């Protein structure tokens, strides 16, 4: 059964930049200046001798012969889901077929492993039409397999040869597109005539620079979360008896929390990057929240909303050091640690190896949080912070602080709480008009990069605060975004994550208003994503993007 909204969205025709709206043959690439990586230039250049220093690419009116011969192209979805991924594939498919109806798009199932193991489907018009403007990655599924060994690269090369493929489009986040850069380098150095193009996906919003203004999915996910937060705010203002602590997706950066705060104006929003810059301790964060709770209680308001980034705990200096030590211990003594069965054994194991300061920080946590810190690591060897119930930890610690304040006569309110974690709710929803348009354009644009023989590039669509016809299409070398970081105890090249800019306009606006929001009830209720109606309602982008590119 197909819902009425799904039928309606099937018919939506995504908007393209003006340069991509005409005939395929009437577009030509323009090369910019050579580029360099954001840091560690010598090391990155050494690791990517064939694809380092390439120029940025833009497209303009001209002519090409892209459609003269039949080509086959592969595509994969990699990493966590983000609204709009299906439209990237649809845009790529439509561009391929418009260039030459005999062209084929081959989808590899289950992410990078499908490409290695040759599990595929050849897309048809009927197949594609069932996924236009829909959420999720279920068209071919996704996966988190890393492409990093020569054996994998050789298998991919053989798969490409078997299908006669001249290009692969990898739709993913920073790690997935790091894989794309490594694969592109391997092919280039081995003289394999296959282009590798990436598309910037992550709802966390931490894959961006001047050319990648926003990663796809961020717009939709933050609108979904903001609707939910607005609903909770209205409920809190109606019942007037709960403090809601809401943890939001965003391990490595606080872009989601900040955007949702700008959309909904909660009483408090903790920004991880500010915590780290100011060197705030866990107790200082607790004091900040408790102070706001006490001041609102003075006004008779024993309710409120607190937004917490998923990765906050890793930005608190003493806990960041603790987590780093835990990651190193588990990585270096993985076999011994894996053999431990009980929480008590694991806790004793790490305590005997932690520095005195980190052991002290570890012992502050309740056993439940300690156990979460000791769970299985993610594919990079890091703590899985999404499993750490930071919102519950803060509720417990704030409650204890308020009890102390009540005993001292400095607080006389009531502190009843509810906790929430908004994560999966936003990853597969129907994409907003913005993400539908943006993703379709990214896929359509990826065809031009690949057909032009470019490899090791991210599809880039800029000028996103303007109507779609004014968007600018092009490509940016992936190596330009890279630096060296420690992963699983080893120094590796990766795309640098973009953190919240504490000097930027979005944070400045938030900082200038947060004191008023903390004391007063200034809630805003964004409501659900709208797909039809005035452009200022249906096509609007995030407040973050609007402030960043304010003219």
Summarize the entry for a quick read:
The chain is of the alpha/beta class. The chain contains 22 helices and 15 strands. It has helices spanning 4-10, 41-47, 85-99, 112-117, 125-129, 150-163, 174-189, 218-239, 255-264, 272-278, 282-298, 312-315, 317-332, 334-338, 343-351, 356-364, 367-373, 390-407, 433-451, 505-519, 535-538, 543-548, and strands spanning 27-34, 55-61, 72-77, 104-108, 120-122, 165-172, 195-200, 243-248, 268-269, 304-309, 417-422, 457-462, 472-477, 482-487, 490-495.
Main features:
Rossmann fold; 16% strand; nine-stranded mixed β-sheet; alpha/beta; four-stranded parallel β-sheet; 551 residues; Arc Repressor Mutant, subunit A
Apparent shape: globular
Largest sheet: 9 strands, mixed
Helical run tally: 22
Number of beta strands: 15
Supply the CATH architecture of the largest domain.
3-Layer(aba) Sandwich
Q: Percentage of helical residues?
A: 40-55%
Q: Using the coordinates shown, work out and report the CATH topology of the largest domain.
A: Rossmann fold
Uncertain segments are none
Average pLDDT value? 95
Distance between the termini: 46 Å
Gyration radius (Cα, Å) is: 24 Å
Strand order in space, largest sheet:
1-2-13-12-7-6-3-4-5
